[in-house]
Write a structure and sequence with these properties.
Elements: E1 12-14, E2 27-29, H1 33-62, H2 68-84, H3 87-96, H4 103-136, H5 147-170, H6 193-230, H7 240-276, H8 283-301, H9 303-328, H10 337-342, H11 348-364
Antiparallel strand pairs: 1-2
């Protein structure tokens, strides 16, 4: 939820100016957020647009493999692009401190912000769970890990995210002119204290639980289980240490991006809701929360730029995995799998007999 400070000429305002039920005289100076937002959002727009357009080109034209993981990544690209396309409007607003684009576009823009943030978290979680099933339970999960099931999951994610983001965005009023000396129209920052107490506090509880806590736990648990599985000696087969290193790198990058982008904003959002509902009182608490909020928000928005890194590592691992499968063809004994991959089809049987003879000779001589 965006800060409720109105963008008038005097950026130092009291909390009482934004709430009819609050008699506090805590002085706030969060005017730094306007140049911060306009700068960061401009950078995210350029970088996010280029990287996500390149990603969607790769998925549709260059990446030959189509499976459930690429289905999740394609939906994540769509979520990022929808949000990135609204950033120029936000940049214009934070530079001019006026919203001339109408109430409906303001509400849609706010809705897309929450759609992108929590959609990104859920789709990243889907990728993490899918990787967990593929590595930890490769055989038992075959019937579950299908394109059809992946599409069903994606539809469910979109329904869940839109059911939370659309009502939140459409509760925002873009035409409030209270304390407006410059006759400007506001957007992104007009949630009243009454709305926070009656509706938004409940929304925060829902999105923090379903949109943040559960995905965070799933990402961490799945990553730990995969790392534990890769530590087993038998996990190093036809892929070798090189493949294991790539998978470990992919998991670490995925988890770091998730934690870096989403933990600061969602943790601060809880305290922000407590301050806005007057559950948490005190000038120091208000000052800290309102100062951290714009910084955490900018970090969260940057996920549009970091998601393509996940695409790169995941796609690279998928392609390498499929190449190995096509070389092996069938599953053989681990002792002879290296020989079966390196020999041509005409010499396979001969090599296999020689290897077996050597193994049996060594065993008999012990």
């Amino acid at each position: 939820m965006y800060n409720n400070t109105l963008p008038t000429g005097n950026v130092t305002q009291t909390w009482a100016e934004n709430s009819s039920t609050n008699n506090s005289t805590c002085q706030k100076n969060d005017g730094f957020k306007y140049p911060l937002y306009s700068t960061i959002f401009s950078i995210v727009f350029v970088v996010g647009l280029i990287t996500n357009v390149v990603a969607i080109y790769i998925f549709t034209c260059s990446l030959k493999l189509r499976n459930e993981t690429t289905t999740y990544m394609m939906n994540l690209v769509v979520s990022d692009l929808l949000f990135v396309c609204t950033l120029p409007l936000r940049v214009f607003y934070f530079i001019n401190m006026n919203w001339p684009f109408g109430s409906m576009l303001c509400k849609v823009s706010v809705s897309l912000f929450y759609t992108n943030m929590y959609g990104s978290m859920l789709f990243l979680t889907c990728i993490s769970v899918d990787r967990f099933l593929a590595i930890v339970h490769p055989f038992r999960s075959r019937a579950l890990r299908t394109k059809r099931n992946a599409k069903i999951v994606c539809v469910a994610v979109w329904v869940l995210v839109l059911s939370g983001s659309l009502p939140t965005g459409f509760m925002l009023e873009s035409t409030s002119r209270e304390n407006n000396k410059n006759n400007a129209t506001f957007c992104f920052e007009n949630f009243s204290s009454k709305q926070w107490k009656s509706h938004l506090s409940k929304v925060v509880i829902f999105i923090e639980l379903v949109g943040f806590m559960i995905p965070l736990l799933l990402n961490v648990c799945c990553s730990i289980m995969v790392l534990h599985t890769l530590r087993r000696p038998q996990s190093i087969s036809h892929g070798g240490k090189l493949n294991k290193t790539k998978i470990l790198r992919m998991i670490i990058v995925h988890l770091c991006i998730f934690c870096f982008c989403f933990i600061p904003y969602n943790v601060n959002l809880v305290f922000y809701a407590l301050v806005r509902t007057k559950t948490l009182k005190g000038c120091f608490a208000e000052s800290v929360v309102r100062t951290i909020y714009p910084i955490a928000l900018c970090i969260a928005v940057s996920n549009c730029c970091f998601d393509p890194i996940v695409y790169y590592f995941t796609s690279e691992t998928i392609q390498n995995s499929m190449k190995r499968k096509s070389q092996v063809g069938r599953s053989y004994d681990v002792k002879f799998s290296e020989a079966l991959q390196s020999e041509t089809s005409s010499n396979l049987q001969c090599s296999l007999r020689n290897l077996k003879a050597k193994v049996f000779h060594n065993e008999s001589s012990v």
